[in-house]
């Protein structure tokens, strides 16, 4: 049984997060929940056994439920880069499916110029993304967390895990 009060609280927190990110200059994207094998593999997913496969997909493009928001985020960034976008700040909040479980996750991306004005011009970095995450934690008054090195990660050159009470609550990379 699902507690309706807990569900309402979750929905309100998600709306609050979306408003905060929009006020921070991020634009919301909405990615597809159904993905192709190629899209997953191109996004760094190699072990497709853990993915939720659709029994009778309508097409090869809708073969798996998304295990992460990363494929949709990368597609949105690539779409905009091909249209000559110089800087992008995207976020998405959505459900992901892996190992038979459904979880609500959030994803942030920063690409291109972080600041471009008459005084200075510099590109976004890993530290701008980390700062955005720290701003979210501060806004929601989340404390007792620490960043730790994620070690070797095939998807990113630099990667950190955000830990709280011995549990991973986020990961970030560039």
Based on the model shown, name its key terms.
174 residues, alpha+beta, three-stranded antiparallel β-sheet, 4 helices, 30% helix, globular
Quick recap of the structure?
This protein is an alpha+beta fold and 174 residues long. It has helices spanning 4-23, 37-42, 70-81, 126-139, and strands spanning 27-28, 34-35, 64-65, 87-98, 101-116, 121-123, 145-149, 159-164, 167-173.
DSSP summary: helix tally: 4
Tell me the major beta sheet.
4 strands, mixed
Given the helix and strand composition, which structural class is it? alpha+beta
Count the beta strands. 9
Low-confidence stretches: none
How would you state the average pLDDT, rounded? 90
SSE order, one letter for each helix or strand:
HEEHEHEEEHEEE
Please state the CA-atom Rg, rounded to the nearest Å.
Answer: 17 Å
Oligomeric nature of the chains: single chain
- Beta content comes to 25-35%
The geometry reads as: globular
How are strands sequenced across the largest beta sheet?
1-4-5-6
Residues in helices, as a percent range: 25-40%
Query: Span from first to last CA?
Result: 40 Å
Please, could you describe this protein's structure?
- 30% of the residues lie in helices and 32% in strands.
- The chain has four helices and nine strands; from the N terminus they run αββαβαβββαβββ.
- The chain has a four-stranded mixed beta sheet, with helices on both faces. It has a three-stranded antiparallel beta sheet with strand order 7-8-9, covered by helices on one side. Strands 2-3 form a two-stranded antiparallel ribbon.
- A hairpin with a 2-residue loop joins strand 4 and strand 5 (101-116).
- The model has no long low-confidence stretch (mean pLDDT 90).
């Amino acid at each position: 049984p699902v507690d309706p009060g807990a569900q309402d609280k979750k929905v309100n927190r998600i709306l609050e997060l979306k408003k905060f990110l929009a006020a921070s200059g991020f634009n919301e994207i909405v990615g597809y929940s159904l993905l192709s094998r190629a899209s997953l593999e191109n996004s760094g997913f190699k072990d497709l056994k853990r993915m939720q496969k659709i029994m009778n997909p309508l097409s090869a493009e809708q073969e798996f439920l998304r295990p992460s928001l990363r494929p949709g985020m990368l597609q949105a960034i690539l779409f905009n880069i091909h249209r000559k976008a110089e800087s992008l700040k995207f976020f998405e909040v959505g459900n992901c499916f892996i190992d038979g479980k459904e979880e609500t996750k959030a994803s942030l991306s920063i690409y291109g110029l972080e600041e471009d004005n008459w005084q200075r011009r510099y590109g976004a970095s890993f530290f701008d993304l980390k700062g955005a995450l720290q701003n979210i934690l501060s806004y929601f008054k989340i404390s007792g967390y620490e960043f730790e090195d994620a070690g070797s990660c095939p998807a990113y050159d630099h990667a950190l895990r955000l830990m709280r009470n011995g549990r991973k609550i986020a990961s970030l990379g560039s």
